[in-house]
TrEMBL record, chain A:
Keyword annotations from UniProtKB, A to Z: DNA-directed RNA polymerase, Nucleus, Transcription
Organism: Hyalella azteca (Amphipod)
One Gene Ontology term, aspect cellular component: RNA polymerase III complex
UniProt-recorded name of the protein: DNA-directed RNA polymerase III subunit RPC3
Cell compartment(s), UniProt: Nucleus
From TrEMBL, chain B:
Main function: DNA-dependent RNA polymerase catalyzes the transcription of DNA into RNA using the four ribonucleoside triphosphates as substrates. Specific peripheric component of RNA polymerase III which synthesizes small RNAs, such as 5S rRNA and tRNAs.
An individual GO BP term: transcription by RNA polymerase III
Lineage: Eukaryota, Metazoa, Ecdysozoa, Arthropoda, Crustacea
Domain of life, per lineage: Eukaryota
Chief subcellular location: nucleus
The protein's name: DNA-directed RNA polymerase III subunit RPC6
Keyword match Cytoplasm: no
InterPro entries recorded: RNA_pol_Rpc34, RNA_pol_Rpc34-like, WH-like_DNA-bd_sf, WH_DNA-bd_sf
Annotated family: Belongs to the eukaryotic RPC34/RPC39 RNA polymerase subunit family.
SUPFAM superfamilies on file: Winged helix' DNA-binding domain
Species annotation: Hyalella azteca (Amphipod)
Keyword line: DNA-directed RNA polymerase, Nucleus, Transcription
GO cellular component, one term: cytoplasm
Length: 550, 319
């Protein structure tokens, strides 16, 4: 099980990666991504050669990529700079809205706007993000959403500062390298934060609130609501060399926990789910790395921390008995009542296996899922056994297993041939499942689907471009005349510049766009499960599916 | 069994003096237990006999054509009194017929096919065929096609019920797997478990999740009795048959099994218990767009005839 399994290192992700970058940046950056994708490090010259682009454009693209943590660079022993992609971070661009939404749910609008700005810039200083976010608040009608009781509206930058501080303290933002100025001509050199820098702390002496308030006033005066706040120069603030970026891991850890808790909840009820979440929190207080495949906590600790939970004993027993997918194991019952081990890896594998079974069910029918579960459960199954074990007609069982074989879900298990083959020894056919391959295959299908959807969206955007431009123009005019106090008749006259057919086409396109983006966002959830699986699969002993893991 | 035997310890003297006391007693036991007896029954009944004495007595009775030897599914041997009517019928039979009949009789409920009879009897296949036909016409044997190899004809003694491996068991009718019947049975089992889960939630919700889970569990026996009550099956299903149904439901991901007796379940401790589990896995988002189920996905790219820009399925999906 020591195969290295990186989901984003696949060929299937290659064109999806450059399409994602093209969607969020431009075709030049996408070409650089394409050139870098298959290599473990390329120099500026070779990227220029591969992309047939001027080196200046390539360098600019690399700056964008590095700023957004989509690429990194290192010096070779020959003092050459080599660039390489951070492929997973490219994929995370598709989850942009999820990160923003998550923060909004947890910390409110101000934090949401901060994260939005950080994602827009890739990396940014605290002063810059406070100025931009405060300006956005002042220029839009979101201000009311953050005005607390008795809070002076002039102090909005304080609210934003507090939100930023909270984001840093909770680990949603992390320190990152700052660009050296001036940047050398060959590479966008970065200055990495020294190891003694506090990554989870925003000291007050790094911020000059007076300077920030002044920058906000100037920014609001010079920028318009449509173009948004202008990014001030980082060097004009005392924290000009301290950059922050999004820490994806903090989000992913919380999503992982939600995924695990939801699975337990659905299996054995909300009450047990709640205790399981509590158990995770208790265990986190004693472990260094929350991503560990198994986290421990003592029973005494659990009982003390969760003593208010109703039916605690029931819940712990259910969690321990494998009713919930084998996620908690009780070790020893000595002195303090033993320990609880939360089998994160095992539960992730269980959820992944069930997810794949569900996919097989939806694609090939419930009988195919039954056969898949049987082979997963028994590891190797003879073709003859499938019919009787799955209560299927022999012909049907053959058809189903053949279909699963053709779709690379079942593999034929090679048995060593008898040294003296004879007509008396019947040819036996055995099936098995290479679970890792099935995950890899499904992930590839996800990437292909993402590519197709993004491509379709691009084509439709192109097709509707002039129509959308016309609509934007009309909306802008209407906005202006409304502000200048135009009559209803005048507004209607302007609105009629868009015909009924055009209006219908706009509505249809917006709906199509929504439809595509909903599926894209959903697929990123599917991939998230596979990401977790790829992180943990080497710690899983038993990938059985379809039976309680007791 | 020992008690039963003891109660009839008096050996009837219908057998003449050519039979020893042990042989008479064995014949009496065979008469009492019509389905046949094993050596251990004889040993229990006559503990004073050594193993060798029992074997000698049995061999003598077999030689006198009074007993027939059958093999059970687990490999143990069963001694059964020979049917006097059959003896009468076989009386007119020639040596070949008797030999073939004995081979078939030895195969018990598993039956035997013509080629194997030929190998064991050293008779020519044509002769075996002829003899089989004759025995069949005398209704001494019957033939059956196995579900495993439908083209193979297996021969059994008329009075013996064929083994499940030949007939396929309760889920086969006329040598065909009855998928519809199985579906109905599985559906019934699942509905019963689901109802049980619902009522457990309603009745024991306040008592804690463990009580709910335990109250939702059902033993295999309980399920078998329920199926018997609703009179779904023409033939009675065994507990093993019901467990097969439930095991298949577990493979469908809608039922979970566990062993042991929780919550004071009757017959706990090692008994298999089953409960319905909600289908909690969400549908993969991959399947929401046509590409997730498209058989042409591996051929779909930016060039050629199958592309996302020209795809009819994507277009239809977006409408
Ligand atoms: S775009 Fe069309 S042809 Fe290509 S994979 Fe999707 S559904 Fe299939």
């Amino acid at each position: 099980m020591s195969v290295i399994f990186n989901l984003f290192n696949s060929i299937a992700f290659e064109r999806t990666a450059s399409k994602i970058v093209e969607t969020f940046f431009d075709s030049i950056v996408a070409s650089v991504v394409k050139a870098l994708y298959r290599s473990s490090g390329e120099s500026l010259q070779s990227i220029t050669r591969l992309t047939h682009l001027p080196s200046k454009q390539v360098l600019q693209a690399l700056v964008s990529l590095i700023q957004h943590n989509l690429a990194s660079f290192e010096y070779t022993p020959q003092r050459q700079v080599h660039y390489r992609l951070n492929k997973a971070n490219i994929f995370y661009l598709l989850r942009k809205n999820k990160y923003i939404h998550h923060v909004r749910e947890k910390l409110g609008v101000a934090a949401e706007l901060v994260v939005e700005r950080v994602l827009e810039e890739g990396s940014i200083t605290a002063s810059q993000v406070i100025v931009c976010t405060t300006c956005k608040l002042l220029m839009t009608d979101l201000s009311s959403a953050v005005d607390r009781a008795n809070q002076n509206p002039g102090d909005r930058h304080i609210i934003v500062r507090d939100a930023l501080r909270q984001l840093i303290e909770l680990g949603y933002l992390e320190r990152c390298a700052s660009p050296s100025s001036p940047a050398p001509p060959c590479c966008p050199l970065l200055v990495k934060p020294s190891s003694d820098d506090k990554h989870r702390f925003l000291p007050d002496d790094h911020l000059n609130l007076q300077l920030i308030a002044q920058a906000v006033t100037e920014n609001v005066e010079t920028s318009s609501s449509s173009s948004g706040a202008i990014l001030p120069d980082a060097s004009s603030f005392p924290d000009g060399k301290i950059y922050w970026r999004l820490n994806y891991d903090a989000f992913h850890l919380q999503w992982r926990d939600t995924l695990l808790v939801t699975s337990v909840e659905k299996n054995v009820g909300a009450e047990v789910g709640l205790v399981f979440r509590g158990l995770l929190q208790v265990a986190y207080s004693t472990v260094e790395d929350k991503w560990q495949s198994g986290v421990y906590t003592t029973a005494a600790h659990v009982k003390h921390a969760l003593n208010s939970a109703p039916h605690l004993e029931h819940c712990l027993q259910l969690l321990g008995e494998g009713e919930s997918g084998g996620c908690v194991r009780r070790i020893g019952v000595g002195g303090g009542g033993g320990e609880y081990q939360i089998e994160v890896a095992q539960l992730v594998a269980h959820i992944t296996a069930e997810f794949l079974a569900k996919r097989i069910k939806e694609m090939f029918g419930s009988k195919a899922a039954r056969v898949f579960r049987l082979v997963m459960r028994n590891h190797i199954v003879s073709a003859d056994m499938i019919a009787s074990a799955c209560l299927l007609d022999k012909k049907e069982a053959d058809q189903v297993s053949n279909m699963l074989f053709l779709n690379q879900i079942l593999l034929v298990h090679d048995l060593r041939k008898a040294s003296m083959p004879s007509s008396h020894t019947p040819e036996l056919l055995f099936f098995k499942v290479n679970f890792l391959e099935v995950v890899r295959l499904t992930a590839s299908q996800c990437f292909t689907e993402l590519y197709n959807l993004l491509r379709k969206r691009e084509l439709l955007t192109e097709k509707n471009r002039s129509l959308m431009e016309k609509k934007t123009r009309v909306d802008a005019i209407v906005d202006n005349i409304v502000k200048s106090g135009a009559t209803q008749e005048q507004i209607q006259d302007i609105e009629e510049m868009l015909t009924d057919a055009e209006r219908t086409a706009v509505t249809k396109w917006l709906k199509q766009q929504d439809q595509i983006l909903t599926v894209v966002s959903g697929i990123t959830d599917d991939i998230f499960l596979f990401e977790l699986f790829s992180r943990y699969y080497c710690h899983v002993d038993d990938l059985s599916v379809g039976r309680s893991a007791a | 069994m020992q008690d039963d035997a003891a109660s009839t310890s008096q050996t009837p003297s219908v057998y003449g003096s050519s039979y020893s006391e042990e042989e008479k007693r064995i014949l009496a036991l065979c008469e009492q237990f019509k389905q046949g007896i094993t050596v251990s029954v004889i040993e229990n009944d006559m503990p004073h006999l050594t193993k060798q004495m029992v074997v000698d007595a049995l061999n003598k009775l077999l030689a006198k054509n009074k007993l027939q030897l059958l093999s059970k599914q687990d490999g143990s041997l069963l001694y059964k009194l020979k049917d006097p009517v059959l003896l009468h019928k076989l009386k007119g039979a020639n040596k070949e017929e008797q030999a073939v009949y004995e081979i078939i009789e030895r195969s018990g409920s598993f039956g035997i096919w013509a080629r194997k009879i030929r190998a064991e009897s050293n008779l020519h296949l044509n002769v075996v065929d002829r003899v089989l036909k004759r025995l069949e016409s005398k209704k001494l044997i019957k033939s059956i096609n196995s579900v495993q190899a439908p083209k193979k004809k297996f021969y059994l003694v008329s009075s013996i019920e064929p083994d499940h491996s030949l007939t396929g068991g309760a889920f086969y009718s006329d040598n065909q797997f009855d998928s519809n019947f199985v579906e109905v049975l599985m559906d019934t089992c699942y509905k019963y478990l689901a109802t049980k889960l619902k009522s457990a939630e309603a009745e024991h919700g306040k008592d804690g999740p463990l009580t709910v889970v335990n109250a939702a569990k059902v033993t295999s026996k309980e399920m078998q009795e329920y199926i018997e009550r609703v009179k779904l099956a023409k033939i009675a299903l065994s507990v093993q048959d019901v467990e097969k149904l439930l095991d298949t439901l577990e493979l469908d991901g809608v039922v979970r099994s566990c062993s042991g007796g929780y919550g004071g379940k009757a017959g706990g401790g090692g008994v298999k218990l089953w409960r319905a589990v909600p289908d909690c896995t969400p549908t993969p988002h991959l399947l929401y767009a046509p590409c997730g189920v498209c058989p042409m996905a591996h051929r779909c790219c930016d060039m050629g005839s199958i592309t996302p820009q020209s795809c009819r399925y994507l277009e239809e999906w977006l409408q």
